[in-house]
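Much of our argument rests on the idea that a fold can be written as discrete symbols. In the encoding step, the backbone of a single protein was reduced to a row of integers, each denoting a local shape. We regard such an encoding as a compact summary of how the chain folds. The record that follows shows the chain in one-letter code together with its fold in token form:
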Amino acid sequence: MAINMSCTRKTGTRSHVAFTHGSIEDLGAGMSRFGAEPFIVTMAPHADSGKTLIVHTGREFVYCLEGHLAYAVDTETYLLEPGDSLFFEAYLPALLEEYRRYPSRNLLVLCPSDEHDHPKERHFRIDLHA
């Protein structure tokens, strides 16, 4: 069985899916999972990820493209501005805190170490009525 080892998604052709506090673009949609799931995440003004801490296997990488992000990881809060990045072990409890009244965009790469782990489901509560 051949596995597709490359994927190109032109801008404007990626699906946008609404979730409770914004939208996501799945940059690797249609690819077999290789231990990395890349997304462009757009957060609405005043949005956060809720009060439930997010924990999963592997690692997580966040790169701020636009706006500002406040990521709480374990006992530290990291303020990210455009060009800043954060890389952490995903077993540490984390959440995205409200930081600014403007929308933000970031590249989020989820890297689960267990093929049966689906961290996207913990990160984004999909709004089926959007």
Notes: The beta strands are 16-19, 22-26, 37-43, 59-66, 69-73, 76-80, 85-89, 94-97, 104-111. The longest helix spans residues 119-123. Helices lie at 119-123.
